[in-house]
Amino acid sequence: MSRKMEAQSSGNVVKDEITVFGFGKSFLGPCLSPFNLKLQTYLRMTDIKYKPWFTTKMPSKGKIPYIEHNGKIVEDSSFIIQYLNSEYKKDLNAHLTPAEKAIALSFQRLVEDNLYWTLAYQRWLMDDSILDLIPFPNRFATKLFSWYTSLKLRPDLRKNMRGQGIGRHSEEEILKIAKLDLGAIADFLGEKEFFMGSQPSEVDAVIFGFVGLIIFTGSNSVSAKDVTENHPNLVAYVERMKQMYWPDWDKLCIPEGTTSWDEMQQQCG
Amino acid sequence: MSEAETEPLIAIYYAAPTLLAPTASPFVLKLLTYLRMTGLKYKSVHTLKMSSKGKHPFIVYKGKEIADSTLIIQFLNNEFNKDLNTSLNAVERATSLAFQRLCEENLVWCVVHDRWIVNTDAFLGQLEMSNMMKKFMSFYVSVRFRRVQQANLHGHGIGRHSDEEILQIGKRDLTALSNFLADKDFFMGSEPTLLDCTSFGLLEQIIECLPGSEYEQFIKEKLPNLVAYTERIKEKFWSDWKEQCAQKKAKHVNQPKSDKEGETLEKVKVEGQNGSGDAYAKSSEEEDATVQEKKTTGMLPVTDS
């Protein structure tokens, strides 16, 4: 049974404008969700104009990000990319052979269906450092969110991880899995400019979305330290992607010290 | 005595075979294929008991339980100095791991969805059990087991999509496997590697154990190289495939009444596996054991919720 969707409207629906709904910016980056960063990176790689918008209302699949385009809501970053490829006649993978597309997809699965959980574990279940990333309007809001995290967000994540399977492992095993996956990404990348070679492709948005997010906004995590210490080629790669597609990264971060709700909202879009 | 004969046996714990395969689980089939590829001796123990992580397979070796097929393989590699990936370079190992993730962290969930949400009757038909047990299983699946799997699918994320979207995702993954395999003998080249254990374990379940599913149709029509691949693996490592499947048990047709006290079933006319009229005698203990076995084997693993 499908739930009636209550996605927050961005207000004026401008023809052909794409609104990307997410959880907003942080002190260290333009978004909090790796899937959101993946999608926005794809949009920048394909030169498709968009407007990011902060929301707390979830769509029918219950996942962020989702987009609104000409009054139509599309959910799930991979389906959104397929939709936009079709609408705007884009294909970042056009230069790849079928075998290369297959390899690119396999690494997308490794990142989104495996590594993602190990990063979510580190971000939400190992300590409270995530709270330092988010610009709360006041101390009460911080406290409220902290309760929400303990009572709802963390138990939900544990339940999802258990359903997925990885949550049945110990912390040590989960961190080993992260190390293995990041090692594979670094080994495959080697000294190439982009993940699949000398031209960018869709999987670069994925790798940057997840690995970039943890390096730039989670540098104290076990995985970020692992990458920084053991995979300099991967660090150089995410820096390169940031320079190329996110030259305005620092301007998009919420300035340190911002606490007013209105100021924060103004930062969206 | 040779070293191989004195070597302690690895005991693999998993649910009973089905009529179509030695195991219903892609992860169990992965592990069994690994053991056959490495030549490690093992014995199968059919059980409903789950591992400490709530899944199958698990092994017991020197009294120690080890759960999770990947962790088991890592352990056995260390213990017995095996490495199916020894010929691969760093880039190839990375690629191999990525495809393993595609199979085990995404495509397998499409199979779970098809088996437990869409085409459950087709799966229950593969189990060797009486019609009454099948009715019980069908009931159990609909009130309990399906909900568990729906929660797992939802937790993973794929369960939030429609049936059509999940099918699209599954076909995309299968096409990727087919394109990567191309005309190679094995996934990473001319020799089998660890990825072949994973991919065979999963592809064989899709090709032979999801009868009537869209995935089965899709593979057979559009991705014939994957079908040929599974045949190649079976020929090389599973020449006893049919013997390892569950054998269809003889049905009792006529039960003669006995006047003698304590005497139970003797000669009955039964339907043999080939439909011929083979007759055999059973004592009451064997009968009880058969009934008990039917009640406990052929049932499917239950995951902890």
TrEMBL record, chain B:
Domain Metaxin glutathione S-transferase: 170-233
Keywords: Membrane, Transmembrane, Transmembrane helix
Region listing for Disordered, in residue ranges: 249-305
Coiled-coil stretches: none
Cross-referenced Pfam families: GST_C_6, GST_N_4
Compositional bias (Basic and acidic residues): 257-270
InterPro entries: FAX/IsoI-like, Glutathione-S-Trfase_C_sf, Glutathione_S-Trfase, Metaxin_GST, Mito_Protein_Transport_Metaxin, Thioredoxin-like_fold, Thioredoxin-like_sf
Residues annotated as transmembrane: 12-33
The Thioredoxin-like fold domain, residue ranges: 26-119
Family in the record: Belongs to the FAX family.
Name of this chain's protein: Failed axon connections protein
Species name: Clavelina lepadiformis (Light-bulb sea squirt)
